[in-house]
Design brief:
- By secondary structure, this protein is mainly alpha-helical.
- The chain is built from 13 helices and two strands; from the N terminus they run H-H-H-H-H-H-H-H-H-H-H-H-H-E-E.
- Strands 1-2 form a two-stranded antiparallel sheet.
- Strand 1 and strand 2 form a beta hairpin.
- The longest helix has 17 residues, at about 155-170.
- The chain is globular and about 45 Å long.
């Protein structure tokens, strides 16, 4: 941030505090040049949801121009954006194509089906009944996951919640059950992310839907980024 370096000696103490706290408060560095961060500031979402949007963006290493265009088109960005990016990564389709299906009024279960993505991606790391609020969805998936019925049984709200669970557990490299334990104590996935802050060393990695980190340009998901490139 060369501009800040040149002018920092003239800045007020409050400005120094804001700059010092920015990397702590947001998963990605929040600067005047960060287009996605600025886009989320303009959204009508609460602070926890804004934090989670930035975390999602960093998790999937979405190109800034793609991220800004997609998040601004989401009717409910705090819920739509995480599912769009999870599906884009899992399907190999562009984030724009995923969102367009959703904007045509299709429920998320149909978007999954048209994208040829199994609901299995929503239950990675969950080998036993997680209990509320995911137990009902998990039980149906465990029983019917390979005959198609599990997909149709999932509501939009369940898919959104499960997608966020996968994203936060993958980002922090923790078991989904660790996040679920906090949910059962009355927290939200977004609040879990805010409390845990930004892990060191995540600034230069992207993570797939299974919670495994890869350096950009390497690993089994090479060329399969949410922008479709």
């Amino acid at each position: 941030m060369p501009g800040f370096v040149r002018t920092s000696r003239f800045a007020r103490p409050a400005a120094f505090a804001a700059l010092a706290l920015a990397p702590v408060l947001w998963p990605a560095a929040a600067t005047a040049a960060d287009l996605f961060y600025n886009a989320t500031v303009g959204l009508r979402v609460n602070d926890d949801a804004r934090f989670f949007l930035n975390l999602t963006n960093q998790h999937y290493a979405v190109p800034e121009s793609t991220a800004v265009a997609v998040v601004n088109r989401c009717p409910r960005p705090q819920d739509d954006y995480p599912v769009v990016m999870l599906l884009a990564r899992a399907s190999g389709r562009s984030a724009d194509a995923i969102l367009s299906m959703r904007l045509h009024g299709q429920p998320w279960v149909d978007v999954f089906a048209r994208s040829q993505v199994s609901p299995d991606v929503l239950f990675v790391g969950m080998d036993r009944d997680p209990g509320p609020p995911y137990g009902h969805a998990w039980g149906y998936w465990k029983k019917h996951g390979h005959d198609g019925d599990a997909r149709t049984a999932l509501s939009d709200a369940q898919i959104v919640d499960l997608a966020k669970l996968q994203i936060v557990s993958g980002y922090y490299h923790v078991s989904p059950y660790s996040v679920i334990a906090e949910r059962q104590r009355g927290s939200t996935v977004e609040r879990y992310a805010v409390v845990h802050g930004r892990p060191s060393g995540h600034g230069h990695q992207s993570h797939d839907a299974h919670g495994q980190g890869h350096d950009k340009g390497h690993g089994h998901d090479e060329g399969n980024h949410p922008d479709g490139n």
